[in-house]
Amino acid sequence: MKSKPRLVSGIQPTGKLHIGNYVGALKNFVALQDSGKYECFFFIADLHSMTEYFTPKEKIKQIEDVALSYLAAGLDPKKSTLFLQSDIPEHTELAWILNTITPFGELRRMTQFKDKSDTHPENINVGLFAYPVLMAADIILYDAHAVPVGEDQLQHTELTRTLARKFNARFGKTFHEPKPLLTEVPRLMSLDDPLKKMSKSRPAGCLFLDDSPDEIRNKIKRAVTDSGRDIVCDPVNKPAVSNLLLLYSSIAGIPISDLEKRYAEKGYAEFKADLAEIVVAALLPFQKKKKALKKNAVRKMLLAGGARAQKIAREKIKEVRKKTGIYT
Ligand code: TRP
């Protein structure tokens, strides 16, 4: 039997997940799993998340929250390997070795590093700088063929390919060069300011996956709109309504042009009320399932997935040690 191409992706546990994470990552992970086309590995990138300020107590909660969200969204430990990055020390070991072949200048060009340095000048740490190298290790450690990511991660997946190639050229064919599986991640903007990205740091404009139906209704009701009454997509002149249309379209799976037609003769109030109910209905099964899950089963589930992942990781690291001449 021909084995399926392997697919690897992860989410950082940095705070409450929001609707952008759902339509951009979670929903898509589940679709990839259920397509049956890949051998799927989904992990929680806790080591990456340490590059941003955190407290140890909240970190555990954040990890549990991503794990529960994986399961509630429909990832199934029987179909996919679900694990915690830090449970597999091979990730960090490989990252160190890759550090030694990573050109400093390439990392300095990474736009995510530059953005994060600009927004948090008080915390420009070396981990943040080397973040893409650990990400490369996460991927090539498993000989992944496909890496589902949003556009903002393309520079990192390109570096991953470069590092795999460089390692292979220097030490002999060891790693597969993975390809990004570009998933359309709608750029959702904040409901209270459509010029800023939707983010947990602006809670009033952010729809969290755990928000109650009334919280969702209120946030959407209060969402800013543009002048004029037309419900049309025009990101330059009507950024607020365009953002709501994008949200509606990505949740309901209806093209924006159809929505424009549907609401051509209708007002903002009706449009917003419909949108709120669509979001509430989309999140309800997720929220119900999440509440029914037991937190103490999460650790066990992650350890079981980790054991499977580590078997592969350990073999790969053995090979890397041999090829690089590490004295074993
Ligand atoms: N950097 C990714 C993000 O923020 C998370 C991540 C870490 C990742 N390691 C990965 C994604 C490996 C895919 C593969 O979205």
Describe the 3D structure.
The chain has 328 residues and is mostly helical. It folds into 2 domains: 6-186 and 295-324, 3-Layer(aba) Sandwich (Rossmann fold); 189-291, Tyrosyl-Transfer RNA Synthetase (Orthogonal Bundle), CATH 1.10.240. The chain is built from 13 helices and 7 strands. It has helices spanning 19-35, 46-49, 56-73, 90-99, 104-108, 111-119, 126-140, 154-171, 213-222, 239-252, 256-262, 268-292, 295-324, and strands at 6-11, 39-44, 81-84, 146-149, 179-182, 189-190, 193-197. Strands 1-2-3 form a 3-stranded parallel β-sheet. Helix 4 (90-99) packs across helix 7 (126-140) and helix 10 (239-252) crosses helix 12. The longest helix is centred in the C-terminal third of the chain and has 30 residues, at 295-324. The model has no long low-confidence stretch (mean pLDDT 95). Tryptophan is lined by residues 8-10, 12, 45, 48, 135, 138-139, 147, 149, 153.
